[in-house]
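Support reply, case 0932

Customer input (verbatim):
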Amino acid sequence: MEQPYTIYEEQMQRKLKRWEIRLLKEPNLIERASKSVQNRINQVIPEKVHNTITATVKGIVQTTLFGITYIPASEPLRDLSLAERDGKAEELLSLYKKIAAAEGAGTGAGGILLGLADFPILIGIKLKFLFELAHVYGYSTKDYRERLFILYVFQLAFSSSKKKPELLKTIKSWPIISQTFPPAADYMKQVNWQQLQQEYRDTIDFRKMLQLIPGIGAVVGAWANFGLLEELGVAGMNCFRLRWLQDKNVE
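Our regenerated output:
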């Protein structure tokens, strides 16, 4: 028997629709020009650098799927309303934005080498946040498919406008699609690592490259990381809200 939505849940449904419209809108002139510049930059970056970044992203994603590094010690929260979960999610996001900002300020003040080291560290912070966020909304990351869902959320937050519609469709159809995935080891063979790392890097390029400039690196590093966690938080919370509302009348 279907359970009626609360006033808060109805409000969230309307908010989610507005978010989807913003997410799927066509890029404006400035965004298209920026992407064009980024494509040119990618063409002159040595293949060795691309390979190194790709290997880094691949290693972190493999850790996400197969390891226990990011799995929270606490069990997923049970018997909470969506409003209560959203409140806890906001607290969690506030904490991780501060962590990311502090890390960005520290590496930004350390010059180019530490600035470059910030990339994998920041990815780790983001993934740890998403793992804890999953538990806030009641989903156990001990399940490989839940860890895979987190990777889709991660990609949605930091992919190009061309990729977002397909990723959002997958996320909205997760209960059905997740049943069709092969075992984790087989899925890893299907991932386009070069594309994944390039989509991610292109999204954060401008802000993070400013972090490498002597004299302003600390300030820019904190600003960039804080903003990137905010973007991830919005995408993450909305994706888990979508799932929670879908699951409400299925359980």
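We compared this against your earlier run and they match. Two observations from our side: The radius of gyration is 18 Å. The first helix runs from residue 7 to 24. Please reopen the case if you see a mismatch on your end.
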